[in-house]
Design brief:
With about 325 residues, the chain is an alpha/beta fold. Helices cover about 45% and strands about 20% of the residues. It contains 13 helices and 13 strands. The chain has a seven-stranded mixed β-sheet with strand order 7-6-8-9-10-12-13, with helices on both faces. It has a six-stranded parallel β-sheet with strand order 2-1-3-4-5-11, sandwiched between helices. Helix 2 (about 40-55) links the parallel strand 1 (about 30-35) and strand 2 (about 65-70). The chain is elongated, with a radius of gyration of 24 Å.
Length: about 325
């Protein structure tokens, strides 16, 4: 009996490492949702990873990041969020307002970290900036609030303009509607006529520029939208072909050949989103993390594009610019 007991004890001891391994916590999974494409937003992903690493998390080592690229197809959001909630990912992170709103409607328990260009209180994401409450927090990077100022810069670049066309994405209705209100109000102050066109697919962007070619607006105002940002090369190519001065919200467009942009450094906001995601994985609660605000705004001008369009950049505007791309 003693020998059998001793052998049984050895068997239990041999099983200890297996039990211990089974009880080790699983690697957390982050559901990362983007409105654009993997190629177009690679630098945002790099910034998000940097923020994660600053809190001790490295993708592929002690955390898994599931990347979900909408490529402008916002109608995929309900099904995607339902799946992430069903699988109980550790955190949902996104740089898209529509995705953040959908996520909040899908779960009241899984932490959500957003990066949005509109007021997150007005969007209904948080109770207040200082005390978000609930399971949602993130970063506000002021992409939409500066629409009127961006319009003023565009008018300074094209002072003879009397009519502009505003292009928005109806698939992202919250931002599209707010952008139209801002631009129409700003246009009244300046004395500009505003025409509206909409696009939510690649082909619709082509169709919009074909309309510009027929109607010949004096300038184009491209609304802030992650899908539009992912198509920045398409925008730059079409604007150059149709010789249309265009203003964008992000530097990415200007680096791709667009004329000018005025807005935040979105890559920095993604780094902050990554940082908050890591802090939540370490045990902090979204309700205790105040919404961060990226307040630095950048005016970027592409001098080569301006010359190709026959535009002379005022010296005052050049002096104001944070960056002039030659």
């Amino acid at each position: 009996m003693k020998r059998r007991t001793f052998i049984a004890g050895l068997g239990s001891a041999a099983a200890w490492p297996v039990v211990a391994r089974a009880q080790q916590p699983a690697v957390p999974v982050i559901g990362f949702v983007s409105a654009g494409s993997a190629d177009a937003e690679a630098h945002y992903v790099a910034a998000f990873r940097k923020g994660l690493s600053e809190t001790g998390y490295v993708e592929g080592q002690n955390v898994t990041v599931e990347h979900h690229w909408l490529e402008g197809q916002f109608d995929r959001l309900p099904g995607l969020m339902a799946d992430l909630v069903r699988r109980r990912v550790a955190v949902i992170a996104t740089g898209t307002a529509a995705a953040a709103i959908e996520a909040k409607g899908a779960t009241a328990t899984i932490p959500i970290v957003f990066g949005v260009g509109d007021d997150p209180v007005k969007l209904g994401l948080v109770a207040s900036l200082a005390r978000p409450g609930g399971n949602v927090t993130g970063v506000n990077f002021f992409a939409r609030e500066v629409n009127s100022k961006r319009l003023a810069f565009l008018h300074e670049l094209v002072p003879e303009a009397v009519s502009i066309t505003v292009l928005v994405n109806p698939g992202n209705p919250t931002i599209a509607e707010a952008t139209l209100r801002d631009v129409q109000e700003g246009a009244r102050v300046i004395g500009l006529q505003v025409h509206v066109l909409k696009a939510s697919k690649i082909g619709e962007i082509d169709a919009a520029f074909a309309t510009f070619s027929r109607e010949r607006p004096d300038a184009l105002f491209v609304g802030p939208d992650a899908f539009f940002s992912s198509r920045r090369v398409q925008f730059a190519t079409l604007a150059a072909h149709h010789r249309i001065p265009a203003a964008y919200s992000l530097r990415d467009h200007v680096a791709a050949g667009g004329l000018m942009s005025y807005g935040p450094n979105v890559a920095d906001s993604y780094r902050l989103v990554g940082g908050y995601t890591g802090r939540i994985l370490r045990g902090e609660k979204p309700a205790d993390l105040p919404v961060q605000q990226v307040t630095k705004l950048e005016l970027v001008i592409n001098l080569k594009t301006a010359k190709a369009l026959g535009l002379t950049i005022p010296e005052t505007l050049l002096a104001t610019a944070d960056e002039v791309i030659q």
